[in-house]
Amino acid sequence: MSQRIYISGLGIISAIGNNVEETFHSLSQARSGIGKINHLTTRYRDEFLAGEVKLSNAELADLVNDHNPQLNRNSYLAMKAAKEALVNAGIDPKDGMRTGVISSTTVAGMGKTELYYKDMVEKGTHLEVLDTHDCGDSTERIADYLGHVDYITTISTACSSAANAIMLGCRMIKQGLLDRAVVGGVDALSKFTFNGFNTLMILDREWCRPFDDTRTGLNLGEAAAFLVIEGEEALRKRGGKALAEIVGYANTNDAYHQTASSPEGFGATLAIKQALAMSGLQPSQIDYINMHGTGTPNNDLSEGTATIAVFGDKVPRFSSTKAFTGHTLAAAASVEAVFSVLSLQHNLIFPNLNFKTPMKEFNLVPETTLVQTPINTVLSNSFGFGGNCSSLIFKKA
Amino acid sequence: MDALIEKLKTQIIEQLNLAEVKPADINPDAPLFGDGLGLDSIDALELIVLLEKHYGIKIQDPKDGKTIFQSVRTMAEYIKSQGKS
Amino acid sequence: MNKAYINGTGCISPQHTADDAWFFDRIVAPDTDFMQAIEPSYKEYISPNLLRRMGRAIKMGVASANMALQQAQLTAVDAIATGTGLGCFEDSERFLMAMLNNEEQFLTPTSFIQSTHNTVGSQIALILKCHDYNFTYVHRGFSFESALMDAMMWFSEGKETILIGGIEEHTPCYVELNRNAGKLKNPGNIPLWKQHTTGYQIGEGGAFFAVSQHKTIHSRSVIEGVNTLYKPETPGDIMKKMHAFLERHALALQDISLVLMGFSGHSLHDKKLQEILPDLCETNQVGHYKHLCGEYHTASAFATFAANRMIEKQEIPEIVKINHKPGEGVKHILIINQYLDINYSFILVGQC
User: Fold this and answer.
1) Range of the domain at C292
2) Is the pTM of this model over 0.95?
3) Does the beta carbon of C52 lie under 8 angstroms from any beta carbon of chain B?
4) Residues C52-87 pLDDT 10s
5) Are residues C190 and C281 in the same domain?
6) E strands along chain A, which residues?
7) How many domains does chain A have?
């Protein structure tokens, strides 16, 4: 029953590009997309940096060629990236195969709700915004934009969300419930999330510096990224091309604290170990780790400790790419899944920008320049509030 | 000092929604975190906002909270030292 | 997907369900457009140090999860899957209003942290020290169904005991906004399945289930299958999918003791269900349930709770019946839910 799962299409829009090609270009040129805030309205506009998508809502509407006033930024980003993935895979959603859409988001329609909630409460206007506030909205927009769907759901597990969407897609295909799925996540920037992370005092005022001793927090970003995943039978039947294989996944819970990770990285260690066990790979067979590496003091210490717990003194080459895109929350894991596939395709490790000083607690030094080396396997981690820990392992197709 | 301590107790109870606790239950010298009131790191962030909202004191580095929030008395002393009581 | 045996339930709803007694005998029918949950004293289920931070959705979720575990005599599970359409809306709203009213200043982290959609699932994991799988589904009228399906998939992948649930809370402000938007109504004395006007009575609640792959001494009923259907075009599509669903479980309509339908009272949303109702009434005992819990994203979790009670007691109460068909025993209950005429689902609950 259990069949192999391949990635056959990629789609992405983030601070470093509006599609896969632009994204790859920025990654190879070590060009970060984090900068001054342009589109988001907040009193902290000049105080913090962010990884914004470089298009206004009007430009995004043009990009997806849909000017329905009910669409919000989350939906635009999601539609754009999901469509790109499907086109990239060369799939017609109406060809009779069973297609799922499994998306994820944390902020959902809050970016629009926060603009109008006072008007809604005080003046009774803009009440139609209620209909697009929830997490399911952008997923259903994707499904309707693609034109056909046999299964649809949305996951929200904070910053690990998209990893879990990918994992669910794999499981459903393996169980024979679907032939293929469009899986990933989306989060547009909102004042709500900005202020939320600010109250937690984990926003860095400078560029984020994952795994650097002087790191003080993360930069927020926004993005949508989707993958088309297919069972080997479906892929063979339609003569599609595999870009990479998903050979391991795991979801565990740290069960330590509502927001913080345990100092020993218990949940993270468990997730990495379980994903490795499933893949049948030895730790020494992992060529590159795309870390969660948010740049908060807590995450990087916990993740680093977990990495050493699994790999001992033979830690594979690693980097966090958060300094390119900012932390894109629910989308982060699918953004980094796209990066991982690009790593496999081009035999490249993308640099951990802004790193200078190793952390005192351990001797872990990320790759800080673009490295060309054979990459056959990539481990990608994503951890979130509520102790949610997910690890994915990708392999050259 | 004692008046400030009493005021702080009430403000802490309100800010942290400690419905079961009365001001008299809080020993000003007992630790706020761990064994004492049993507060955690989220409460520490709440207390930082309390200082900003009621006393105009801005703490930029959450690590500073560790020394300031040892007990109600250390909090009061810190507020005094900032000339904000 | 494997079957899921129900070994424990916990339900906080607009009815007297928290004590798990036969609530159909003392129905609450509020004369408003909002059916509020009847909440128990939470101190029995949650420690005061945790309670002080929790919004209602979290309290309802954690308490009903606790009830389900107690009943199943479990202190640990292999996975937790929860569903919620709007998540912890009270906390979201609190943070949002504070942000808007204070121009982004003096904000505190607690309501932001609690506003995260996976708070209920992660709070349960924290309390149980459960390091295993933990998912939260947030897809409208598929939120609970997705969690249920996830559990049934895990049972064929080897996990043994799983906690699943659906939670929804509505704040006074959110209800007021929906009222002003013309979405709500008090259905009055006309049965929901007979309504000719738009609007629904909004409800809320939390329902959790401790389920297992194998039958245990605590097993009360079994969830045999679940299926979701996104935007079916015609009533015929629903019937076709329903027959195919039953067939996959080696059943036909005549094997179903009760078809429990999710009429919301909103004539447009209910249109397709109204069209298939006469045929179903010809062949089956048909019932409905949203007059007991109101309309909300995870109302099907309440329906599953109600179905479990009916199967256990082998009785179909008058209050749910749409027609009267003589039948023997309550072997299988088929729940057909709809949410906004967008999300349709089938949940099959059987005797075990």
Assistant:
1) 221-350
2) yes
3) yes
4) 999 999 999 999 999 999 999 999 999 999 999 999
5) no
6) 5-13, 35-36, 49-51, 99-104, 151-155, 180-187, 220-221, 223-231, 244-253, 288-290, 317-319, 348-349, 371-372, 377-384, 388-396
7) 2
